[in-house]
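WARN retry 2 of 3 for item q-0093 after timeout on previous attempt; input resubmitted unchanged.
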Amino acid sequence: MSMFFQRLKEVSSPTIGLGCMNLSHGYGQHVPEIDALRALHEAFEMGYRHFDTATLYGGTTNERLLGNALKDKRQELLLASKCGMAIDADSGKRVINGRPEILRQQCEASLARLKTDHIDVYYLHRLDRDVPVEESVGALGKLVDEGKIGGVGLSEVSAQTLHKAHKEYPIAAVQSEYSLWTRNPEIALINACQELNVALVAFSPLGRGFLAGAMQADTVFGEGDMRANMPRFNADNLPKNLAVLSRFQSIAQSLEVTPAQLALAWVKAQGSHIVPIPGTCSIAHMRENLAANSLTLDSKFLSELNLMMTPDQVAGKRYSTAQQMDIDTEEFGQQ
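OK item q-0093 returned
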């Protein structure tokens, strides 16, 4: 059993975790601290035990939030964070830096913000193309040896990069966007993770709200909402994508589950080594998502879902050209 799943077992965690980014970052909304703290407390009480954050989120605000909310529950959960990508204090711009000394500095700062002496899984948030992945992972491995982190993770990397990194130091988990309408991990990463006994942690398993029915053809994304720059959500592509959503919603209705629960059940069904971490600011949605932990789909519905929203049916790429430059994942259509 990998370190990641051993820790999930130790804390009796459901196989659905909580992505905490939304509380501080990404979709333009501002959640008052008192409400965000209440949401995290409620999440723990309803059963979440796997909480995921990052140095980047909210310019370190999200880590501070989790530190304040969960410090008294630290031994009862799997706490994950990320390094190697941060907001520069002077320019306010996002900076990717995977140099060993930077990762160590960021880890020490993350530990302080999270009010803990160790982080269970610490991910390299993005591959720094100017630093060999072996150097970055080697530095994280030293942090494991020192007891400051429990396991090394990677985010948005290809199967090839995973193999290179794993030879340097065993990788506990890889984060990648994975949902019914984002199938990129199926190109190679899912199999690579299974082969190496690495957990695949699926972020945005609800398609950034799309699969949950959170948007309409005329939806306008506010300032600071990353979806405003993602091709699938623009005015040309969003109506086309919504047109392929109705059958999915009909299946959810026939099963007497919500579309979000159906989307999570589909991700979970793709492999026992896959763990979705949906994010939300809503306590009601947290509860709704967690209920999908016990939902199992039979082969008939799985087969039908597998044929929906395949890459040829989805209008628009998942990232803009600029966003794509920061990631290392395989893309459909690559030679």
